[in-house]
Amino acid sequence: MPGDLPAPIVNADSAPYWEGARNGKLLLQRCRDCGTLRFFPRYLCTACGSDHTEWAEASGRGTVHSFTIVHRAALPEFQARTPYVVALIDLEEGPRMMTNIVGDDALDVALGEAVTMAFEERGTEGAMVPQFRRGAGDV
Amino acid sequence: MSSLRNKVIVAGVGESDIGKVPHMTGVGLNAQACKRALDDAGLTLKDVDGLLTAYTMTEPYFMLGTVVAEYLGLQPRYCASVAVGGGSPAVMLKHAAEAVLAGNCDTVLVCAGENRATGQTRDSAVAALTIVGHPYFENPYGPLIPGFYAMIARRYMHEYGTTREQMAAVAVNGRNHALRHPNAHMKKPITIEDVLTSKPIAEPLNILDCCLISDAAGAFVVTRADRAPDMRKRPAWLLGIGEFHTHEHLIAAPSLTEFGCRQSGEAAYAMAGLGPEDVDFAQLYDCFTIVPIIEMEELGLAERGAGGEMFLRKETAIEGRFPVNTDGGLLSHAQAGAGGGIFGIVEALRQLRGGEGPRQVKRHDVALVHNEGGILSSNCTILLGREAR
User: Which of the two ends of chain A, N or C, has the fewest CB atoms closer than 10 A to its terminal CB?
Assistant: First the structure.
């Protein structure tokens, strides 16, 4: 199904994040003053207000904080995928992000279990979105 | 600014026709609710010098505050649109009270709601609500509002042992009360089994765990407390009110089990000099069945992990120890965008006055109303009294 969903929307805050995803990397912002990692990308550090920011590569490992199995999607392009899993993942580095759990066993996902980064192609021009699959396998 | 306690009153309330009202526009429903609220207070549009409303997702209006003022033929000296989702009505009461106390105006008309059931198709109503998700970092994963609350529910169940039966009991509680309300959207009884076997939307939430999509608007009138003797009926005194905003999107929520309702409640209790033990009944925001359980616990109305059991044991029934959502709430009375929470304020004044027949609670001196918007993002808690305290 690669490419059957629209490409993510890139803007000035997030361009490096999505460029990283195209290259198979999950990038987080790190404050160059206080060191706090943050997700999602923003202009200022949410811990100290600094505008000195660098990008750091995440390991791609995390655990499931919570999840839902969607049976009735809000948009037609997602309805074709139902049932699918939407989850909140706590990355090994700390920040929390949203993802789908992908893979044949996705619907067996459990709270607290380990997940590993994967990528999914979106749109028609090679855009990739970070996704996660069950297990602590190789990134 | 000094405390708002005992300084302003909610002098009148009104609700539009509710359910499927295809012969009226969204702004028209607001006008109908406004007229009924002014009639209830014994006032007319000529007495109104302030107007607050929220926003609409069904009609192509920008600046809804002045849109509604214009529609009503008002030229207010205080007017704004407030957009904190379902939290808007309670926050508008706070803003109105502050404006009155500051002398910016004397009498503020507050309204909210829209024609969400018939002003758009059901599919477009659901699709329009994707705007609540983060456009860049949530929506690529196909979430939906029930899905966000489902993730909260699953985590809350995990940490505090809340059960699906307890959540279903929230829906049944609301429905039982709506059956006694002459203007409620839903008229058919439901059972816990009905909720548990209804169509799954986003696990663990089924369709009967989700609020309605209604045509509905509500309104209330806020004015100075010293004008209470001039009102047609007994008003409600604003005893305490507090708001707190922790995030907008679920990815940025500080926690999936602790929310800003704790801080908004603490601020309201502190202003009123009251505690949870002083509250006689509550109108809690119930967009999904997990939410009133969390609010009960965060607002100190139940021990942590014990809120769900109060619903299951029917302690929240009108005849129970602590009645909750006596009008049926968003799950069974009405939900129309920013208008959902306004009916909690409407119902609180009616119950405080007394005389609601089969819906009337026994003890009705102090009411708590809680509104929340987004994904438990914007919270506002109100304490209203039958008397100044």
Answer: N
